[in-house]
Amino acid sequence: MRKLVLLGLVGLAAQLVDGSLGMAYGVTSTTLLLVTGTAPAAASAAVHLAEIGTTLASGAAHWRFGNVDWRVIGRIALPGAVGAFAGATFLSSLSTEAARPLMAGILLALGVYILVRFTAWGTPQHRLGTPLRRRFLAPLGVVAGFVDATGGGGWGPVATPALLATGRMEPRKVVGSVDTSEFLVAVAASGGFLLGLGSAGIQFDVVAALLLGGLIAAPIAAWLVRHIPGRILGSLVGGVIILTNTRTILNGFDVSSSARTALYLLIVLVWAGAVAWSLRGHRLEQAALAQRQRDVVGSEAA
Fold it and tell me: What is the 3-state secondary structure (H, E, C) of the chain?
């Protein structure tokens, strides 16, 4: 019973992060399940079954708060489902541990880029609203879906930084669209795991605990992403990507615990400084905007 309560709290915390930043529900939940001794395929299966409910609730909440771009969802969700189904059936019989360091390195580079871009220059405005092409979104969906199913999480860490890096969508709409499209990805991955493992290989009590926690957190997270400034949200996302994938890379090498701790502490300090800088930049931007509005009102009154 204590384990199920803990998993429920993990589901709640993971959905708060995922719904606010567009990633990390699967990574957080799967990591804990693996620590408890759950087999990789069974852990990923449980998380994806829970995500059917959490992503549906999260998508509805994001739609309610205007955080969704349906054109992007239409072009990325179905390819993502295809990739997720293929990844789930693949993982049911084969491990993908060897591919994780390479993928983590790519994501780490994207995370550094996003952290620097949003911290130093804020939300890019000159390309916002420019349509994203299907030839970019469809391959992205296939790759993100495959990684998500084989890694127990990865739809957000792959899709969110790639969409943010284009500079063509507001961060809150990137998060909302990625979360909403993940519903089809979770359905397809679950179907693949049920086909490969059978229902006997899935712990449905774990699924229920993760689902309950996620359902409670979904509307709260959608409200948060609506009210977090884009510049700050971009810095937060970049830090999550860097920290998560640094850990994945270090797990593939014989690195002492003291060295790991020092590196994690350095990353957290840089990340905190970046968020503080973004907050300062946002306040200056708001002050400048308010001053321009006062100048316009003054000139009209004159």
Answer: CHHHHHHHHHHHHHHHHHHHHCCCHHHHHHHHHHHCCCCHHHHHHHHHHHHHHHHHHHHHHHHHCCCCCHHHHHHHHHHHHHHHHHHHHHHCCCCCHHHHHHHHHHHHHHHHHHHHHHHHHCCCCCCCCCCCCHHHHHHHHHHHHHHHHHHCCCHHHHHHHHHHHHCCCCHHHHHHHHHHHHHHHHHHHHHHHHHHHCHHHCCHHHHHHHHHHHHHHHHHHHHHHHHCCHHHHHHHHHHHHHHHHHHHHHCCCCCCHHHHHHHHHHHHHHHHHHHHHHHHHHHHHHHHHHHHHHHHHHHHHC
